[in-house]
Design a protein that fits this description.
Elements: E1 2-8, E2 12-19, E3 22-30, H1 36-54, E4 62-69, E5 72-74, E6 79-83, E7 88-91, H2 93-101, E8 105-109, H3 110-121, E9 130-135, E10 139-145, E11 148-150, H4 181-184, H5 186-198, H6 204-209, H7 219-225, H8 229-253, E12 257-261, H9 269-282, H10 286-289, E13 293-296, H11 303-318
Parallel strand pairs: 1-4, 4-8, 9-12, 12-13
Antiparallel strand pairs: 1-2, 2-3, 5-6, 6-7, 9-10, 10-11
Helix pairs in contact: 1-2, 3-11, 5-8, 7-8, 8-9
The chain binds zinc ion.
Zinc ion (ZN) is lined by residues 162, 172, 174, 176, 179.
Length: 319
């Protein structure tokens, strides 16, 4: 069985062709808001055909195409309801790509797709119930329950980054205060690292970063490893907030595993060991009754194409 998964982003569309669950070949093409919806649909259609052909597979044998897209996605309708960066409103992308390829096309949100990809083919392959939390520019993620993606009404659910963990806290782009992503994103960690540097001129953080502008998500972890007290406090606070958010999600969904993706997850054990301890202290009924694994996501940049493929599979079996 052959499927194509497409991971649409702001700068490019990535594709993967899968045969019997194996990724055979990847290809990508640059995209630009100036392409317009028609131009993007055209590029995706051509990309799907090319990746199959260049893998030596017949496009006629492709069962379906899955697409993960940024923005607010009405997945049942196959419509990009809203994508700010591309200024799209109500774009029927699934139908537009189906018209160009003659294949069934399924569309979902990119973060949800990544969660399903990790759950089925990555770090979550041994679990039925798992969550992906992506620590990047924001906090994204997705929820897979009983092996299926949970999307909520009009696929507007699973916005884990906009769960408030500090009432009256930091202002968030969504309009509320104290959202999870204001404390646990890489952006938040960078902000907190800079604030700590400004209030502590003697910190090793200055030497490690070079300047405020060069601070990234790994700066505080590096300085903490070198024994800097200021950095240890930044990292400790970051992990505590992350643990609060994860514990809230675990108390609601009680997954078997929480997978962490995004740049900050590259810290590995320096993040995971203290995080597990803090999450375990906070979760209801404890870990003896219902053990919880917290682990790094495994698919990296390929999570999106695996997820788009997995989503197409899920939708096909629902039909
Ligand atoms: Zn928010």
């Amino acid at each position: 069985m052959i499927y194509v998964g497409i991971d649409l982003g702001g700068m490019s569309a990535k594709s993967g062709v899968f045969e019997d669950g194996r990724l055979i070949r990847k290809e990508r093409v640059d995209t630009d808001p100036a392409d317009g919806a028609e131009g993007v649909a055209e590029k995706i259609g051509a990309l799907a055909k090319n990746v199959a052909a260049h893998a030596g597979l017949r496009f006629e044998d492709v069962q379906a195409i899955g697409i993960g897209s940024p923005g607010v996605i009405d997945s049942a309708a196959g419509v990009v309801a809203k994508w700010g960066n591309y200024n799209w409103r109500q774009v029927p992308l699934a139908r537009m790509v189906a018209d160009r390829t003659g294949k069934p096309v399924c569309l979902t949100n990119d973060a949800n797709a990544a969660a399903l990809g990790e759950a089925k083919f990555g770090a979550g392959a041994n679990y039925k119930d798992c969550l992906l939390i992506t620590l990047g520019t924001g906090v994204g993620g997705g929820i897979v329950l009983g092996g299926k993606l949970f999307e909520g009404y009009r696929s507007a659910g699973a916005e884990v980054g906009h769960m408030v963990i500090q009432t009256g806290g930091r202002r968030c782009g969504c309009g509320r205060r104290g959202c999870f992503e204001q404390y646990s994103s890489a952006t938040a960690l960078i902000r907190d690292t800079r604030e700590a540097m400004e209030s502590n001129r003697a910190s090793l953080l200055w030497e490690i970063a070079g300047s405020l502008e060069k601070v990234d998500g790994s700066t505080a972890f590096k300085a903490a490893r070198a024994g800097d007290e200021t950095a240890r406090r930044v990292v400790g606070d970051y992990i505590r907030y992350l643990a609060e958010g994860i514990a809230n999600l675990v108390n609601i969904f009680r997954p078997q595993a929480v997978m962490l993706g995004g740049g900050v997850s590259n810290e590995g054990e320096a993040l995971l060991v203290p995080l597990k301890e803090k999450v375990n202290e906070r979760i209801y009924v404890g870990t003896e009754y219902a053990p919880l694994d917290i682990l790094r996501a495994a698919l990296g940049n390929d999570a999106g194409i695996y997820g788009a493929y997995a989503y197409a599979l899920q939708r096909q079996t629902e039909r």
